[in-house]
Structure formats: structure tokens, C-alpha cells
């Protein structure tokens, strides 16, 4: 009696449950690895990118530096959206656009959209992790219930109700619950971990966006704005 014997005795329902758990595990580990690499890369480059932007004396050079960053770098994309919004508003100075929205409001709207977009990208895969973490134990429990049901049917048909006849099949069925927990626990831990990381990163997005707004709305760099305050 054991896992190998359990797999050999699986029927259609058992195989569906088992394959479902395997797929859920693969999906959760895929997103765990992807999000781990993404957050590692973001933390490694984010502070450097923002520091270089503010330390570059010339605004055009700072924007050019942001354009040279990888397309997956969120801080550079937020800065470029703000720069493009400011340039677009300046090109249409005196038009109906400039009359309906001043420069500060136009840049602020672009920054809000950029921060929201990048925040949503940070959350990719978290829905899968949350779903796996909440449903995998129940999927495993379904396999256990079905396995115990089949074991009891066989025991009843054989007429042997001894402990040795009952313990083996029921113990095998409980393996499905263990598999469900094995799938769910890493997903739950990873979900909580990445939610915490994303909260910190979103705060960094907001701080950077506020500084960018001051810069493109007033023309003063972050250090100068802080000194005026």
C-alpha cells in the first residue's frame, strides 16, 4: 500500500483529481518563479534608475537615460509617460487642450494612468496563486472522499471489515488530501510574500510619481522641490 499502489488503482474521477492537482502545482510554481525573478530584477534596478534620473543635471539627458532602459523597467516607463505628457501639453499651448487642463493636471493624469498600469502588471499571477491556495485542499479532499467511498464499497463486497482491510485503502485515499495541501501551502505563502513586496513597490511608484509631477509641473528637480518645502 502506498502512492504507487494508489496511482495504479485510480479510476476516471481519481485521475481527474490527480491531474488537476499536478496542473495547479505547475501553474503556481511557474508564477512563483516568474514573480520572484521580476521582483528581484525590479529591486536591483529600481533604486539605481531613479537615483540616476535625479542625479543627471540635464533633463534631456535624464529622459534619454530612461529611454535606454529595458521596456520591462516600470520606473523608466512612468517617467517617460510624464515627460511625453508634459511635452504634448507644451506643444498644444494655447489650444483647447491647454485651456481645459493646465500642465499640472495633464501630467498628473498621465502619471496616475502610468502608476495604475505598472501596479496591475505587478499583480500578474497573483490571482492564480490565490486560487490554487484556496481550492487545492478541497480538490485533494474530493479525491480522498472518492477514494474512501471506493474502498468502502470494495470492503463491503468482500465482507472483510478487519482493521488491516480498512486501514490500507483509507490510508491511500488520504494521500490525495496530503497532495492538495502540498500544492496549496507554497501558493499561499508565495501569495502573501508577493502581496507584501508589491505593496512596498507601489509605495515607491507613488513617491516617484509625486516627485515627477513636481518636476514636470514646476521645472524643479526633486532636491530643489524638497528644499523649497
Description of the structure:
The protein has 229 residues and is mainly alpha-helical. Helix 7 packs antiparallel against helix 8. The longest helix has 56 residues. The chain is rod-shaped and about 90 Å long. The C terminus is likely disordered.
Key descriptive features of the protein:
single chain; 229 residues; mainly alpha; 0% strand; rod-shaped
Uncertain stretches of 5 or more adjacent residues: 225-229
| CA gyration radius, whole angstroms | 28 Å
Beta-strand segment tally: 0
The secondary-structure class comes to mainly alpha
Helix content: over 70%
Distance between the termini: 74 Å
Task: Note the overall shape.
Answer: rod-shaped
Count of separate DSSP helical elements: 9
Main sheet record = none
Mean pLDDT, rounded to whole units?
81
Order of helices and strands: HHHHHHHHH
DSSP strand (E) fraction?
under 5%
Oligomer: single chain
Question: What is the gist of this entry?
Answer:
The protein contains nine helices and no strands. It has 229 residues and is mainly alpha-helical.
How is the topology of this model organized?
Blueprint: H1 3-8, H2 12-55, H3 59-67, H4 74-91, H5 96-100, H6 103-122, H7 126-158, H8 163-218, H9 222-228
Helix pairs in contact: 2-3, 2-7, 2-8, 4-6, 4-8, 6-8, 7-8
Amino acid at each position: 500500500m502506498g502512492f504507487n499502489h494508489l496511482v495504479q488503482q485510480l479510476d476516471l474521477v481519481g485521475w481527474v483529481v490527480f491531474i488537476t492537482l499536478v496542473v495547479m502545482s505547475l501553474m503556481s510554481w511557474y508564477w512563483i518563479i516568474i514573480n520572484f525573478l521580476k521582483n528581484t530584477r525590479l529591486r536591483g534596478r529600481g533604486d539605481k534608475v531613479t537615483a540616476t534620473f535625479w542625479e543627471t543635471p540635464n533633463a534631456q539627458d535624464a529622459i534619454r537615460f530612461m529611454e535606454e532602459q529595458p521596456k520591462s523597467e516600470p520606473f523608466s516607463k512612468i517617467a517617460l509617460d510624464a515627460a511625453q505628457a508634459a511635452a504634448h501639453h507644451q506643444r498644444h499651448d494655447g489650444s483647447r487642450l491647454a485651456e481645459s487642463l493646465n500642465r499640472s493636471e495633464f501630467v498628473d493624469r498621465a502619471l496616475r494612468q502610468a502608476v495604475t498600469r505598472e501596479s496591475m502588471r505587478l499583480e500578474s499571477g497573483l490571482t492564480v496563486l490565490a486560487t490554487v491556495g484556496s481550492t487545492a485542499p478541497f480538490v485533494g479532499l474530493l479525491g480522498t472522499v472518492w477514494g474512501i467511498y471506493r474502498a468502502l464499497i470494495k470492503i463491503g463486497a468482500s465482507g472483510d471489515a478487519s482493521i488491516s482491510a480498512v486501514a490500507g485503502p483509507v490510508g491511500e485515499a488520504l494521500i490525495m488530501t496530503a497532495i492538495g495541501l502540498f500544492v496549496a501551502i507554497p501558493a499561499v505563502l508565495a501569495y502573501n510574500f508577493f502581496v507584501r513586496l508589491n505593496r512596498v513597490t507601489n509605495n515607491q511608484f507613488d513617491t516617484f510619481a509625486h516627485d515627477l509631477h513636481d518636476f514636470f509641473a514646476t521645472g524643479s528637480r526633486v532636491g530643489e522641490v524638497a528644499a523649497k518645502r
